[in-house]
């Protein structure tokens, strides 16, 4: 039931049929109210300087946009770096240090899948999950981080930071619940809009390929993978952040007669312990140097303000 609902909502936002378009139109009054509420929320927030350079990578819409591989690519460039995120889909609550600068300190159930990707992909990074992003940033600073990346934190208007927003083409430009937008890019808030294939591009490597593979994935809008897929026996889509069981995966292997399950890294970190044959669709991104130039300009500006005694509370 949950799986069907998730896929219905994804279709409603990104590839609506006629009935869904009619529903979207009928919900427009609620969207106006919601969007006005988000604007009031934005206007009542005051950005606090937390005494460390902070870069947020996010998007305005619900659903996936490639934030995780982009944050990974950016963070790999720096030393004394931390990544702080909410940790969607994890079985824990509160603040957890998933990884210090050397060691992974918990399992994927505690961290959530995206945080565990960072823990594996960025060897020298601190990785922290926390619903309270300020608390996570402060812990990262205490642990020695000089630069903190926030995964999906545009809406954290109470935090002073450099914002990058990934632009995603969406048929319906309305706010929730009529459309997919969680928030607008407010005119008085500065953020850099970036686009795939202009500011960054995906590079996919197929590892441990087998003759017969069944695709298994639990990412938002899984059709995004189609452009990178080799031939597969079947495509098995689960809702974003789904917690797999070994039994359901064995059933797919047996039903298809496949040699392996083809998964993304987001799924791999959850399935590796099952001791099943896995092929990996490993994704990373190549980032245009102008993005790093913007980050460096921001850091120089913030560090100059700090040296001159203008650090906020």
How would you explain this protein's 3D organization?
By secondary structure, the protein is α/β, with parallel strands linked by helices. 34% of the residues lie in helices and 20% in strands. The protein has two domains: 43-199 and 288-307, no CATH class; 202-286, Rossmann fold, CATH 3.40.50. Helix 9 (265-271) links the parallel strand 11 (260-264) and strand 12 (278-287). The longest helix is centred in the C-terminal third of the chain and has 19 residues, at 289-307.
What is the mean pLDDT? 93
| Helical/strand content category | alpha/beta
Number of strands: 12
Which blocks of ≥5 consecutive residues have pLDDT under 50? none
Give the assembly state of these chains.
Answer: single chain
Query: How far apart are the termini?
Result: 48 Å
Helix content: 25-40%
Beta-strand content:
15-25%
**Total number of distinct structural domains:** 2
Please give the count of helices. 10
Lateral strand order in the biggest sheet? 3-4-2-5-1-6-7
Radius of gyration, CA atoms, in whole angstroms? 20 Å
The helix/strand series, from N terminus to C terminus, equals HHHEHEEHHEHEEEEEEHEHEH
